[in-house]
Amino acid sequence: MSRHLKRIKQFQRAMVEQGMGAALLFYSRDIFYYAGIAQPAFLAIFPDDYRLFVRSGYPYAIQTAGIEASHITEERRLDFIYQEYFSYLWNKTLGIELDLLPAKQYLEYHALFQGFEIVDASPLILAQRAVKSDYEVEQIRRACRIVQAGQKTVQENLRPGISELELSAMIENSHRLAGHEGGIFLRHPDLPLGMGPISSGSNLRDFTGIVYSISGIGLSPALPIGPSNRIIDEGDQVVVDIPSMVNGYHADQSRTYIAGKARPRVRGMYADLREISDYVIDSIRPGMGCDQVYDLAMEKAAEMRVQDQFLRFTGDSRCRLIGHGVGIEVNEPPVLIANNRAIIPDNCVLAIEMHMLDKQAGVVKIEDTVLISSAGNEILTKASRNLIETAVASY
Questions:
Q1: What is the β-pairing status of strands 388-389 and 255-258?
Q2: What is the pLDDT of residues 53-98, one digit of tens each?
Q3: Which residues face 22 on adjacent strands?
Q4: What's the CA gap between 298 and 276, in Å, rounded?
Q5: Residue 189, preceding bond cis, omega within 30 degrees?
Q6: What's the rounded Cα separation, in Å, for the pair 296 and 348?
Q7: What is the dihedral of CA 216, 219, 221, 226, to 10 degrees?
C-alpha cells in the first residue's frame, strides 16, 4: 500500500469518527499530501472510497500521482461532481478546508450542496500532517542541507558595503543550485513569498507585522518583508531566515551573522539566547502542551535575568510565539504560542525560533528545525548555531 493510500485511509477513519459523510478538498498542499500531485484538482474522500478530479494537467497527473489511476478522473465541473458522487449520500455532513475557502466560493458550495451541513475538515488534516513519517523526515533533512549551503554563502560573501538585497540574492541562488524548489508555502491566502526574511543593523528593530518575527522591511511598503537596499556596515548584525523546500517539504532556519567582529555585548546577548534555545530544545517532550513550551522559555529567560530583552520588539510589544510545525507548509500546527493548549505529538517536526532585542546591542535571533520524538529530540538543521563573524577585508 502506498504512503498516499495509507494517509487517505487514516483520514477516512478520522472523518467517520467525526461524523462526516464525505470530504471535498481543494487546497494544493492537502491534495499533494494525500494524492502526490499539486495540479488544480478536487479530492473527494468518502468513508470507503475516494476519487481525484483533475481540473488541469490530467496526462501529467496520471503519470505522477501517488494513487491508482483508476481513482483519477479528468473533471473541472463541480456541479457534475456533486450530481454523480454526492447527491445520493445519506450522511450530508461535508468536510471542506474552511480556513482557506473564500466567502464567495463558500456561498457557491452552499448553494450547490443543498441540504448538506458544511463543516471544517482542516483540523483533521492538520492533526494528521503534524505526525511525520520516516519518509517525510528524510525530505526535511534534505531541505535542511540546502539552508546549510546558504550559510556557507553568507560566510563567503558577507562584508561591509554589500546590500541586504545583494546578499539575499546570493543566498537564494545557492539554495536553488542546491535543490530548493523555489517556493515557500504558508497556509495563508494573502502572503505570497518566494523567499524568507533577511535584515541587518537598524532594520532589525523595525517590526512590520507581516510575519510574527524579525522580518526585514522589504524594498517598499507594498511588501514590507525581506531584504531592502540598505548597505551593511562593519559590525552590523545580519539575521538570515530564508527557508528551503525539497519534494514539497520545508526547512526553516535563522542564524545571526556579524559583518566583521561582534561587540562584547552582542556576544553576551547571543550566548544567553543560545542557552535558552538549547534548554527549550532539550526540554520539549511529546505530550506537552504548546503553551508549556512557551512558558519554559519565559521561565528560563527570567531565571537568567534577560526577560526584558527576550522576544522583545521595539516599543512595549513582545512576541508570544517561539515556534511552529514544519512540513509541507513552512509554518503549520502545532504552534508554540502562549495560551495554546494543543498537544505536541510524537514524531513531530518543529521550528524553534526566538530572538532578543537590546536598545544598545541590537537584535540577535536563532531558529532550528527539530524532530521531537519519544526516542529523543534531534536538531535537523546542521548549520553552525554559533554567532558567526565574517572576516573584514580591505575593499
A1: parallel
A2: 999 999 999 999 999 999 999 999 999 999 999 999 999 999 999 9
A3: 94
A4: 9
A5: no
A6: 19
A7: -30
- Summarize the confidence of residues 25-52 as an average pLDDT: 97
- Reading the block at residue 107, the C-alpha cell is 456561498
Length of the chain: 395
Strand extents, DSSP E, the chain: 22-25, 41-46, 49-54, 72-74, 93-96, 117-120, 198-200, 237-240, 244-246, 249-251, 255-258, 321-325, 332-337, 348-358, 362-372, 378-379, 388-389
Please name every residue paired with 19 in a beta bridge, in sequence order, or none if there are none: none
Helices (H) and strands (E) in the chain, counts: 10, 17
Q: What's the predicted TM-score (pTM) here?
A: 0.94
Q: What is the 3-state composition of the chain as percent helix, strand, coil, each rounded to the nearest 5?
A: 35, 25, 40
Q: Are 250 and 185 in contact (CB under 8 A)?
A: yes
Check: CB of residue 322 under 8 Å from CB of residue 280: yes
* Cell 526553516 found at: 252
Q: How far is CA 384 from the centre of its chain?
A: 21
CA–CA distance, 176 with 182 (Å, rounded to integer):
7
Q: What is the pLDDT of residues 195-207, one digit of tens each?
A: 788 999 999 888 7
Instruction: Say whether pLDDT at 221 is over 80.
Output: yes
Q: Which phi and psi angles does 23 have, rounded to 5°?
A: -135, 145
Q: Which three cell numbers stand for residue 81?
A: 461532481
Beta bridge partners of 200: 238
* Percentage of the chain lying above the pLDDT 70 cut: 97
Predicted confidence band at 138 (pLDDT cuts at 50, 70, 90)?
very high
β-sheet bridge partners, residue 372: 348
Residue 192 has pLDDT above 70, yes or no: no
Q: What is the DSSP letter of 71?
A: G
